[in-house]
Amino acid sequence: MVELVFLIPFITGVVAFFLPRSIGRPLLVFTGAMHLLLSILLWLRKPEPLFQAYFAITPEGMLSLLVISLLFFLISIYTVGYLKASDIKAENIFIGSMLLFLSTMTMVTLSDHIMVMWIAIEATTLASAPLIYTHRTAVSLEATWKYVLICSVGIAMALLGSVLITIAMDVGQVDAPVSFSALTVVATQLDPMWLKAGFAFILVGYGTKMGLAPMHTWLPDAHSEAPSPVSALLSGVLLNCAYLGIFKTNKIMVAAGLEDFSGLILMGFGLASILAAGTFILKQTEYKRLLAYSSIENMGIIAFGTGVGGLGAYGAILCLIHHSLIKSSLFLTSGNILLGYGSRLIENTGNLVNRMPKTFVAFFSGFVAISGLPPFGIFIGELFVIMGAFKAGHYTGATILILSLCVIFAGFANQAMKISFNTSETTVGLKEKANLVWPQYALLSTSLVLCFWIPDILYRTIMNAVTSVGGGF
Questions:
Q1: For residues 47 and 183, what is the distance between their CA atoms, to the nearest angstrom?
Q2: Phi and psi (nearest 5°) for 200?
Q3: What percent of the chain has pLDDT over 70?
Q4: What's this model's pTM, rounded to 2 decimal places?
């Protein structure tokens, strides 16, 4: 049953390329619902994979899978309404590519073999590239090529890092499967020099796909040009898949006693990403690019917290979950704003509170949530990251983080206020149908509920994942 979770969307994705829109749209939602059901069953029953040498059920993998599945189901419902309200050509290619994208991302969460993980992450690039080029303009073509080329270079570096880890096995004369779970067990026998080199290349390689600075340059263009449902998947799900490759490699480093080395590099890239995001957010003129740079900021916080370890690692996982929920909601809401105003420029929007009140509630709630304000979960995650940094003695890093968050909040708030309350010359609004609004409400409500109540089975899954990288209370 494990392999079925990514095989089913792969099959329906291939079939969708040959179906008319009258069948393709219901198939998208049906596959999303089926995927969510299978993911929950997988989480509860934890069956053995058919190919145990390549796939495994791990706590961090299951967390990512549940987030992917829930987000895709809600995004698929929104997508049906979005397709009706927008003019997207070759809709069968769009729907088929979305389902293939779901399949490849699911494969990432279940991959245990290092090379299967690499293949799956590379496959996400190939599956998502047509989605970025959906509008078929010169600008979207440029964004697509930029995405493919930069991410491919990063993936090549990750491949080199994977090879270096196998060299660490040979030098250490380790006879074990080339899987994350097996290498974690024998980590102390691996040659530390080659293991460090492998981690560095994997961090830069997968960090490119994750959107860490300075390898982040593809991300604002891709998120800006892609249709809003695709932007929600790229930011809320794809970045998590890339982080999963780094997280699993970091488990090997922690098991080998090299957490100081990996942690320092992770914190460095994390702070660089936060600073880069803050710099561009202050002068941003497009709201979708604004959200894209916010994603770079949050990926930086997650990388920094993972590097800190302890409470910081726990906070990083919380930020990972809540960022996916909140940022996906914001990108879906940006789709409503684009449909209502016909422009991505902030100066061409305004008076959202009166023009589209339901969309305004989702947008402004999302802004409060992603800014790290209570009662939403990003606040709790960032608080744990900062506490963990001070507890571990990283006073300089924690100070830079706090100051950067203040600057980013000021920049984001300035733009959010313009969109929400500035006067607008446009009088025509978007008819806010239920399927264009309630998926955002569901995502934000889920984030809000998880702040006050985490089911015991979910909490145990989070703690098992955090403990594997030396995190926890």
A1: 22
A2: -60, -45
A3: 98
A4: 0.95
